[in-house]
Amino acid sequence: MDEAVRHIAGTYAPKGNYIGILMLASLFVEAWDYYSIAFVLTFIRQQFNPSPLLLGLSAAGVQAGAVLGALLGGWLTDKLGRRVMFMASIALFIVLAAMQAFVTSIEQLIVIRFVLGIPLGADVTTSYTYIMEYLPTGRREVMGNRWQVMYAAGQAVCAAVVALFLVSGMSHEWMWRVILGLGAVPAVIILIMRSELPETTIWLVRQGRFREAKATSRQIYGDSLDMLPDMDVTIRKPPLREFLSDLRQDPVRWRASIYSWISFLCCGGQFSTFGFYIPVIFMMVGVSSIIGTSLMTGLIWVIAGIAAWVGPAMLPRLGHRGVGIAGFSTVIVGLSIAAYALYTGHPFLLPLAAAIMMWGHIWAVTNPLTIATVVSRAEYRGVAGGLTYVFNKIAVFMGIFLFPSLFAMIGQANATTFVLVFPIVGLLAAIFIFREVYGFQLD
User: Fold this and answer.
1) Hey, how many other C-beta atoms are within 10 angstroms of the C-beta on 312?
2) Fewer beta carbons under 10 A from the terminal one: N or C of the chain?
3) What pLDDT, on a 0 to 100 scale, did the predictor assign at position 152?
4) Is pLDDT of 104 > 80?
5) Is the pLDDT of residue 288 over 70?
């Protein structure tokens, strides 16, 4: 069995890149839902006149749901299979995304967005198991790190659509309903494209389902896995409690996992505070009008998309550690310029600061999920991705929910300076905790 897993893990799949891109496409959907709420919060407030607490929950609720989805989805991905989970999660998202357009109260919107976060959190963790089990060593790291390309594309397209609707004169109520509901459209396309993908061969082998594994291997790799018998066998399923003890047996894997948790937490903190509220900050300090802010934010995300492509391309040269160090260092520079602009009353510097900050953030955030799933055994890969994603989503939820209050308490400049804590901690973790795992092969 181990021989078959090692053989598959090092074998090139002709459709591997297509499968990887298809898995990452779900991030476009998440980005749309995640960032669209930032543009339409003002219109939702006009519609329902909620308290600041309820308005914050309507924006952050999906992140709280994603925490539950990541944990539950990761466990079910290892238990039930990769294919079952990614089909179920995207189908559930379609229904819930469309329901957002028809809510009649802010309370309904909060509940739907919380439940909506569950399939979003589950889908990301499932997608990474596919990437790690379909692409060979080296290529899977680059593909896994390219998830921010889809994220940047989702946010740039969202900004452009919002600007288009504003120019067209669409009513504000119609606008926020259509924007939130539109996330179901690309999700339907992804569901149709995913419908023909089989279960991963590695998961089937680890489950002892050798007959299905051999059939899937012939379909994907053109390899019959002759080292396996033509019959299924019963294999011990390791309990979930052994996950952390397994990691701790290897200092390199353990330190890599700790870094993935810390760095993803820091990335969630630095983005959900300053990065998420870029449109709000621009309008509050008078950088531009609402239409100009939408266009400017879209341009920043185009720059972020370029960073999302360049960062993984540099991975073979810099390694995960080098990419992380460069990313967090750049975020520190960008946030420092932003704080200076706010302290000194030079708002024209904020778009430049935001672009620099987002370039660094994209580099820093590309690899935590990749690192966590690369160093995990196949039996725990879903759990490893889910647990790592939880660190990010907790920080994102707390940041979106609490940052407006922090703004009000200590001011824009001081709040921006406070955010520097996150990239500094991430940088220190990359330097002192992490040990390079690029090209790591466990299975």
Assistant:
1) 23
2) N
3) 75
4) yes
5) no
**Residue type for position 383:** V
Continuous segment of H or E residues that includes residue 57:
helix 52-80
Three-class SS of residue 58? Answer: helix
Residue 30: alpha-carbon gap to chain centroid: 8
- Comparing 21-35, 102-116, 284-298, 363-377, the range with the smallest average pLDDT is 284-298
Q: Which distant-in-sequence residues (6+ apart) come within 8 Å of 221 by Cβ?
A: 8, 11, 12, 13, 14, 201
Specify the amino acid at residue 219. Answer: Q
Number of H helices, E strands in the chain: 21, 0
Q: What domains appear along the chain, each with residue ranges and CATH number?
A: 2-226+238-432 (1.20.1250.20)
**Sign of the C-alpha dihedral computed for residues 235, 241, 244 and 245 taken in this order:** negative
DSSP symbol at 347: G
300 close to 355: Cβ distance less than 8 angstroms: yes
Residue-wise pLDDT for 58-88, tens only, equals 877 888 888 888 888 888 888 888 888 888 8
- Tokens encoding 255: 């330190």
Spatial contact of 20 and 135, defined as CB atoms under 8 Å apart: yes
In whole angstroms, what is the distance from residue 189 CA to residue 152 CA? Answer: 19
Residue 403 has a pLDDT of 72
Q: Which pLDDT belongs to residue 7?
A: 63
Residue 11 is predicted with a pLDDT of: 66
- pLDDT at residue number 261: 96
Distances (CA, A) of 266 to 64, 102, 173, 331: 17, 35, 35, 11
Look-up of token digits 């220190």: 428
pTM as predicted: 0.81
Give dist(CA 331, CA 334) in Å, integer.
Answer: 5
The length of the chain is 443
Structure tokens at 20: 């990887």
Q: What are phi and psi of 103, to 5 degrees?
A: -70, 155
Cα→Cα distances 436→247, 258, 331, 369, 376, Å? 16, 13, 21, 15, 15
Tokens 């370029």 belong to which residue? 306
Is residue 181 classed as helix, strand or coil in its secondary structure? Answer: helix
Tokens of 153: 């594309």
Question: What amino acid occupies position 423?
Answer: P
Tokens of 10: 């090092």
Per-residue confidence (pLDDT) for residue 205, from 0 to 100: 81
